[in-house]
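CORE FACILITY INTAKE
Project code: CF-77B
Contact: R.S. (postdoc)
Sample description: multi-component assembly, two entities in total
Requested service: structural model of the whole complex
Turnaround: standard
Below are the sequence entries exactly as provided by the requester. Do not edit them.
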Amino acid sequence: MSGRRGRGIHFSRLYSFSCFRGSFRDEHSQIGQKGYSRVVYCNDPDNSEQLMLSPLAPYTASSILWPLLVVIGATMAKEAVEDWRRKQDVEANNRKVKVYDRNHNFQHTRWKKLRVGDLVKVYKDEYFPADLLLLSSSYEDGICYVETTNLDGETNLKVKHALDVTSSLHEDNSFQHFKAIIKCEDPNEDLYAFVGTLYYDGQQYPLSLQQLLVRDSKLRNTEFVYGVVVFTGHDTKVMQNATDPPSKRSKIERKMDKIIYVLFSLLILVSFIGSFFFGISTKKDIDDGKLKRWYLRPDAATVFYDPQRSALAAFFHFLTGLMLYGYLIPISLYVSIEVVKVLQTIFINRDQDMYYEETDKPAHARTSNLNEELGQVDTILSDKTGTLTCNSMDFVKCSIAGVAYGRGMTEVERALAKRKGDTHHDSGITSSNIQRSGDDFAGSGKSIKGFNFHDERIMNGQWVNEPHADMIQKFFRVLALCHTAIPEVNQETGEVAYEAESPDEAAFVIAARELGFEFFERTQTSISLHELDHKSGRKIDRTCHMLVALSLRIQAILDTFPPPPENVLFLLRVSVMFERLSEDAQDSVAITMDHIKRYSEAGLRTLVVACRELSELEYRSWEEEFLTAQTSLNADRDALIEAAADKIERDLILLGATAVEDKLQKGVPECIEKLENAGIKIWVITGDKMETAINIGYACSLLREDMKQIVITLDSAEISDLEKKGDKEAVAKASSVSITNQIREGKLQLSSSEGNSIPFGLIIDGKSLTFALSKNLEDSFLDLANNCASVICCRSTPKQKALVTRLVKKGTGRTTLAIGDGANDVGMLQEADIGVGISGVEGMQAAMSSDFTIAQFRFLERLLLVHGHWCYRRISMMICYFFYKNIAFGFTLFWFEAHASFSGQPAYNDWYMSFYNVFFTSLPVIALGVFDQDVSARLCLKNPELYQEGIHNILFSWPRILGWMLNGIISSMIIFFFTTNSVLHQAFRRDGRVVDFEVLGVMMYTCAVWTVNCQMALSINYFTWIQHFFIWGSIAFWYAFLVMYGAMSPRISTTAYQVFVETCAPSPFFWLETLLVVVSALLPYLLYRSFQTEFNPMIHDVIQRRRLESPEVEASKELSGKIGKLREEDSLLSKL
Amino acid sequence: MSSGDGSSEPSSKISKISKKPRYSRFTQQELPACKPILTPGLVITILISLAIIFIPIGLSSISASENVVELVDRYDDVCIPSNSSNHDEKIGFIQDAATNKTCFRTWIVPKKMNHPIFVYYQLDNFYQNHRRYVKSRSDHQLWSPKSERATKLCEPEAQNDDDKPIVPCGLIAWSLFNDTYRFSRNDDAIEINKKDIAWGSDRTKKFGSDVYPKNFQTRGLIGGAKLNESIPLSQQEDLIVWMRTAALPSFRKLYGRIETDLEANDKITIEIQNNYNTYSFNGRKKLVISTTTWIGGKNDFLGRMYMTVGGTSLFFAIAFSILFVIKPR
């Protein structure tokens, strides 16, 4: 959203941009620079107008100006529509909010008039107009609920707490004497932190994110709140976050710039040749004081034709030539590409096969710049959690006091079982399979989302009979209490649902509920649950006071449960904190450790649960220390808090561990297999443990049984010994050496198995990655990784994700695509050539910084193999064709000029020329760019090898581009020389009249229009009525235009007056000549293509043929040969 | 995320409209389409049908062209005094108003020529398509006496020395071709019809019937022909033909029509007034008479090219078939 705004501002420059360039040469110097296209367009009308006033121009002013205005008008209209969103700004600025004024009343005021320090009152379902500090709400305890969908996409409600001191201000008039001072941090973009202090009544109160109501979020379930404006406008957190998405350009577009250089050199060359000969012929016009071509009156010539100053005349002619052959540089190409890309993104956005029913999310292309880049992806770098997996957690197992519970089987376990040859589960991992196995265990038939735990030992209250019942009770109490979830009680059924910030949390609360610890109410200071009394077996309501809730990690709960009520039960959940556990339970720790290891191997996310009991006295002394740390505004505040937290996190009693399954998304293994068949390398970069990552790799068929694994890790005894000694330098040195050796060994393995085509899988952990990414190792690491079929980087940080992406991008020069869903993937998404965000559960940051968003990983297959391939093909064909058609046309001008003494006379009427790119040839190209399909979507998916064309950039390689240009030159020669030779001298009609300048122009132009349009018809493979309409319509329109234009007064139509109706149409020769030239101009291409499809077919040719012949006939042999050849060429190239 | 079975969802979600893209064949890119592929069968069919169409057209154009009788005679090099061999003497001869420029040529008609027989003059190496030349005219002035002064583009032939506008102005009109031909057969004059040699639209819409030549060819340097000031421009057909500029530096323009048949072996004498200076720029002048058929004048190129393209298609069709038989996929 904010990104759109940024784009809008950028675009708006286009149609409010007024500049006037003195010389048109400046315009050309813009070529190749960023934004070249746009600048050229906004400058052109000025330039042409200026130039038209000079006698240099070969055309009349209006014939250039009008079509340009049409094109610019269309572009402007497009930009204006895209900018329509800016209207929202005005709307937002004029929204009203109640503000406390001097008369001690709340008055409606416009948002834009808000000042820092204003007191505002916001009602239910209203947006916050600025970042507010919550003072009080309609609730007694000063809490309120906030929906932050606009910020992070999370749909759950968040609770905000007012400070106790201010929460009593419930009335409008209670603010009469309210005065306070807030000291807080400077505006920044961190949505998840806020530090400040409130000075009120001589006291200091710490402020945290809990009191901050961020702009663009919405008040929910609360009648009203009072708040103080802290940040307004651009200082608000949301605006600080609004950064422009990094500007990315596709490789094709960058290559196009190079082609423009080539064409520009060609333009200069051609103009130079023209002016050179013009200079010579002009100089010769007066020889020894005698007039040669007296009919040109060289004795009375202006400077442009003056034989005395022929060098100067030649120079001016050079400028004229630049304008005349401007057709060689297809300016309208840029506009056409823009239009085409926007339409292509509409197709992506509207694709039903990329719509995800469950979250109601279609695919969304956030930029139209990278459509064709999707067809060239060489390496995919993928996050795991939420990308390959659903990120909706199921509580499947737990280990309490050394006993493992939970009998469910995870997907990874099934994959492992399958790998070991156990065919008990028939067809691998399909969703039905999962469902079935889930049902097997559930028995009751009712499946609960987030809960897939089956164990009769502790379910249905049976846990009281287990040996460690008290531990089990504490364990689930921790789960039920230590979280930030909000309960929603359904009044009718009494069922409780939860809104939690993370899916893990939801899973815990649900698990606790299912096992009899039902959390049902939360206030600012207390949490209430129903609990099964394990002695009586009855349900008891219990309320605990929450004392400090400082982070997810630690929550202190005053447990009023008997016995004895004065004890503080300090509860906490930790991930890996074994060193913090108390020493006296080592045996159960070891068992739990073992369980955790097994859980990770089964692809589960584990969490250790521990607690500590304190006496109230101990607690109070700690609390004081902690609060001082919290209120301090020093730079080391965080350190102080950390220190305080450290003090309490000691001597914990281990309760057990949870294991939550993050299920693979539907269709992931199939999708990955397809993408691999398409020749795309897939790297998974994850923060998970190595075992988990490997197992997930197997589950999603990234690693296979027949693959050899190369594992690079620093988990060796030697290094951990060094680590214990604490000599960091030695560790680094040893690690570096070890990694170097491991990479070398890996390479040896690779080269030794060369030839027998065993695929390799590379697994590297985060620590090793740090060294592998260092300057001296990165090349060999990349080399190794490139030769492996799949790469898994585990335990990597967000920064490493971005670094790996950069390494792959820079190191291979190939197109990289990063896909991820969380805030930790943002760096990676922005670094990669294409960032694809999964609009999933973890919020919107990734989606906001991506170029495309999809709802499910499996849609990537369609996005790349279908849309990517099509867009790549369309854009590259379109560009090649555009150059072809403009060269074919532009060079006829050159040949003609060569026959007009290089005087810069165009062969055609001005208006024919200006309409060439606008009406007679543009629409079919746009239709090509929008609609062409070499093979249908179904076949694209069925034959992923087709994607190779994009990876190896076959359709936009230099030979192909130059081939098209050559074709254009050949066509222009055929058009010019065949036409002129066939009309030379003699009459072309029965009435003896001869071809003159006007008729020759029409003849050549007709041939050109026919040729380029038929060339289009020849080169596309997909005719809908739209293509037919545009191609034949363009040709028909040319004739219609001739008739209409020729019917105008001769003072307007000049050389076109009646030229078709009276002169050309009645002559059979005219029609025969058109047929001859058009067929001759197309014949070379037809023959070339026929031979090519027959004897050296491209991949899509093979697939098309296969479709035509019959689906049974296998041409795959030929294909694999083809692809093998491609790869060979490629490796040759890279060696060069 | 909320658990449970939907009933506990917040009320705001119920009213939400689904974002599911609506189905249409257009947006799903499933429009019915035909997908032609260049199979060998199709290629051979195309090539053979091209041959089938092109070869007959070629043959008939060649035969039409054969039926045309065309006589071409270059006279610029013979219609000068035989003693003026060098370049400057030729120019001196042509620029001297006093010299006798009459010249006689005799032709034998090789084949019967049916009327109408078209008389052309042909100029070579004359750049009527030079940009300076092409632009040097005023369409407004030619059409309406009111626009007499619209001579901006006509420089240097825009005004005479008294600043009076020249009608018709500009280099094109100024350099009007002024050789004349008189045909006779056995001392009988053959009439040359000079009516209707220009395009009808030019006569009626571009050259005004109330515009008369003024101040034409009155300045020091005389270009070409003079015009009869009592005849409106719309009837000065030589001028109209001349002003319809040629496309290429070698061109023919219609001079007139002979409305009688010429028999084979007829001896025709042509009296040429060799006035027009092509010697300065090494141009050539030719006199052409020709009959026409449905494709116009004598035109071997078109027919031959049709034959060539048809033959090429046939050749490749056969080559393709053979290759296909020898090396099927």
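Facility notes:
- Confidence is low (pLDDT under 50) at residues 1-53, 422-445, 549-553, 560-566 of chain A.
- Chain A touches chain B through 115 residues (CB under 8 Å).
Invoice: internal transfer
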